[in-house]
Every structure is written in structure tokens, then in C-alpha cells.
Amino acid sequence: MATKNGGFVALLLLLSFLLSSPLPARCDAPLPVNVWPKPTSMSWAEPHMAVRVSSSFHVVAPSGNAHLLSAARRYAALLLAERYRPLVTPAVNVTAGGAGAGAGAAGRGAELGYLTLAVSDLHAPLQHGVDESYALEILPAGAAATVTAATAWGAMRGLETFSQLAWWCGRERAVLVAAGVRIEDRPLYPHRGLMLDTGRTYFPVADILRTIDAMAANKMNVFHWHITDSQSFPLELPSEPALAEKGSYGDGMRYTVDDLVSCAGEFWLPDASDWPSRLAAEPGAGQLNPLEPKTYQVMSNVINDVTSLFPDGFYHAGADEVTPGCWNADPSIQRYLARGGTLSRLLEKFVGAAHPLIVSRNRTAVYWEDVLLDQAVNVTASAIPPETTILQTWNNGGNNTRLIVRAGYRAIVSSASFYYLDCGHGDFAGNDSAYDDPRSDYGTSGGSWCGPYKTWQRVYDYDVAGGLTAEEARLVVGGEVAMWTEQVDAAVLDGRVWPRASAMAEALWSGNRDATGRKRYAEATDRLTDWRHRMVGRGVRAEPIQPLWCRNRPGMCNLVR
Fold it and tell me: Does some domain include residue 33?
């Protein structure tokens, strides 16, 4: 009898404890919600708590920066409309109340009514190297939430993080946000970009804007718009309207400015048995002729117009894959070579004229690595001084990065072996007899020059400063994943880019290693699955990385238990 009474008393004590504790969420699961990219430092007090978000939730932002005020309204609306349901529901207790938390509806407990932004410098311009750091604190009982940042741009990073700490709990019929959270965060690299090629494929503005929105959500900060290439010139420029009129895609519109361009419109591979004689790196021949005086008039107009249209501090001047065969086939250049000229001096003539113009517009010139490292056609360092030049590397992995920084240049890393998102989908050249052999793409190349396909794990694991000394590594400003579009259009854009670009975003924001120095791709798998799920809910058609069965059974899809 005493045993029974003791058990009854213990049961009453247990019930009393449960009733006096924060109300347990009726939506529960073993893991809390995560943020992508993973913050530099994040703590979530245990037991994990969450607070309901008020239906009148708003962001209190300082006046004086229109972009920040717009972001505050945008993120408040995003939170109020949030219907993201985690694949594994966070195991949290929903706070029952707290001083200053705000009264909820009858019986619903505390609600978070607002988030406060505190910014030191509202006028810092959005340029390379701007301070993106922030701190986010949501008090344990949901009494207050604050983002503190040096600049408006850091505050926006904090807003994004805050939005990822929220989710919809159907059983509660409410948006919940984590409480008892403290985050301090800043990026490892100041340049975290995506290059999108619209020269080969036209993308509607809506698709470009959706891509930029997804970049912001991933805390990426550079949209490298490869607007033009030899295939098309879709950008309308006030001083050179003929470029877009004749060069953009559309009925009766082709890039045929014959008084300006060498080998324009000619077949790119006149002799398939003589690869060095090709007129272009791929179909779509045409290179500017540096001996033609009008080239420099047009070049000057383009530089002036583009720097007026875009306020960014970088101007990408290209200069990659100069094809000797094209220039060698031009009669005026043949005469120049016969008089003792060289193709390298020809390129330097052009670069030597363009570079000062770019710098005079208060821009840093960015070139592909070829301008310095190409074995056949290159320029001397005097034409591209390191103080006003950044080189973007894409060949030979870390080896070319090392060559660039040892020459004193800052480097943007876009290694084709790790960051080219178009690789591994075969080739687009027609009537390729290689496919007569059924074993033609049995190897790892996937039928493309830069194969195999770059998995998110390969992207995530790449160290852009790997193998460099500390001094050399300081010259690496960051990296860009590249989406070349010979076989990409708006129908497949999202899935080709996301979530693989997300993998680079985290590696360049907070690194790809844990506190012990070990690569953390295994730990990142579940988090990236969750983030991909949230991106899809935001309208980004990101491709999956695992079956949902794996996420619902943590560890069961691993190679090693």
C-alpha cells in the first residue's frame, strides 16, 4: 500500500512539474531548426524554446537607409506568411509567457511582436569589403529580439538568419521562432558569388531576379552577370545601340558587326583534324580586332555606358580564351604578323587601352586568368598592375590560384574542377562521331570537357586557399560558382544552380570544417536537405540531394554507421 501511495505522490509531483514548466510543443522532433549558411557562432539555450510570432509582428528599423527599411518590410511579410514545415519538426517547448513578451490570444501564451535593428553606420556603401557582420539575440522567453550590426548590409544578413529560425507549426496553428538564441556571425571571404551566362542563353528578368533573391538568402553577395559573349550581345547601350540591335537573340537579329569583329559568323572549326587552327573555343566565332580603330571607339563607349549603368566597384573585362586561329585568319592581322608583330602584343595593345579607361572610371579591373597565364597569347604584368587588377582563376585547380597570388594579384577562385556547375551534362556540338562508340562516355567525364558533374559535396569540400601560405591566402578574396549556359535555360536554371551554389555559400561564409578542423560535409547533409526544402517553399526549384526517407531516419543513409 505504501508503494502504491508513493507512486501516486510521484505521479502528482510529475504532473505538477509538467504543468508549471513551459508548455511543451505539440509538434516535436529530435532536432532543432538550423540556419544556412551555418553561423560563425550560435548557441541555443536548453531546453530548446520557441515563441509564437504575433500576427502583428513587425521589424523596427532605423530611418535613414531606404534599402534597410525595404528589407525590414520584406522580412516581416515573409515571417507572417511563413508556412515552412521542417522535415523533422524541432523538439522545442513553446514559451508560456515572459515579461515584455507581449500578450497573445487567450490561452496562447507569449508572442513575439517585433524585432529591433540597431545599426552603427547606415550610410556605408554596398561595395567589396563592406562589413557584413551582425549579432542576433532572441531572449529565452521571447521577451525581445534584436539584430545589432555595423552596417545596413550586416543587418540584412541578420534578418535572413532570423527568418530561418522561424517555421510553421500546424498543430499550434502558428508561426514559431526559436527563443534563447544568441548568434555572432561574419563571413570568412568578402567575395561570394555566382556567375550567370546570359550571352549564350537569354533569361527573362524574373528568372534573374529570383536567382538574386536566392543568392541573398544564401548570404552570397556578388552576382557576376556575364551579359555578353561571342554568341550574343543582349545589353542595350545608349552610345552603341547597334550592338544589341544586331547582336541580341531574336528574329532577324545576329551578332554580325563585320567592321569590328574578326571571323564573325564563320564556322568555328574549319578543319576538325587541326584543333589549334579553330576560330573559337566553341561554336560562336568572333573576336574584336585590336588593329581596327573603331574597336577603341566602341570599347570606350561600352566601358563608359556600363560603368554608368552599374555602380559596382569591379568591372570584368574578360580576356579569356583568345583563340589564335581567329586572329590568324584575319587579313589585316596577317599583315601585322608579317611585319614582326605577335598575337601577345596584339592582345596587350587592346588590354593596354582598356585598362586605363576602366581605372579612370574608379573601377578595379577583373580579368580571367588567361590574360596572364595563357601559354599562347598573354600580356605582361605592366599592362595589368596588381594594384588595380584582380584575376579570376578557372583552370588547373589550386595551381593557377597559386601562380596568380605569387605574382602579387588578388584572386577570385572559380576552378572548373570544383565550381563549374554546367559540367558533366555531355557536349552540345552536333554530329559528334565519338558517340558511335557505345563506350564513348563510360569514363568520368560525362561527355563534357570539364566533367564529371560537380556534386554539392565536391563544391562544399573545396578549399579556395588550399596549399597557400598565410600571406598568399590573404590575396584570395573569395570565389564564384559559374553557370555557363550552353545547355541551360530558364526551365532548368534553378535545379542546376541550387543547392550546389548553397554549398559554396557556406564554405565561403563560415568554412567547411568543424571546430576540430575536420571537413563537416557529413554533418551538413541534413542541414542542406532542410535548407533546400525551405528554398523550394520560397519558390526556388532547387533539386533534392537525398530521398526524404533519409532525412526522416537520421544516419540510416550514411556509408559508415
Answer: no
Which residue is catalytic, options 184, 266, 321, 472? Answer: 321
User: Beta strand 134-138 with 174-185: parallel, antiparallel or unpaired?
Assistant: antiparallel
The torsion angle over the Cα atoms of residues 119, 121, 125 and 130, rounded to 10 degrees, is -80
Q: How far apart are CA 79 and CA 114, in angstroms?
A: 11
Domains contained in the chain, number:
2
HEC profile of 357-392:
HHHHCCCEEEEECHHHHCCCCCCCHHHCCHHHEEEE
> Is 480 tagged catalytic?
no
Range of weakest confidence among 248-252, 398-402, 421-425, 538-542: 248-252
Q: Mind listing the pLDDT tens digit for each residue in 324-379? A: 888 888 999 999 999 999 999 999 999 999 999 999 999 999 999 999 999 999 99
Interatomic CA distance for residues 169 and 367, integer angstroms: 49
What pLDDT was estimated at residue 399? 96
Distance of CA 65 to the CA centre of its chain: 25
**Residue span of the structural domain in which 84 resides:** 41-95+109-185
Mean pLDDT of all residues in 159-173: 93
170 and 66 in one domain? yes
Domain ends where: 185, 216, 238? 185
DSSP bridge pairs for 93: 24, 49
Q: Dihedral of CA 245/249/250/254: which sign? A: positive
Q: Is this structure's pTM higher than 0.85?
A: yes
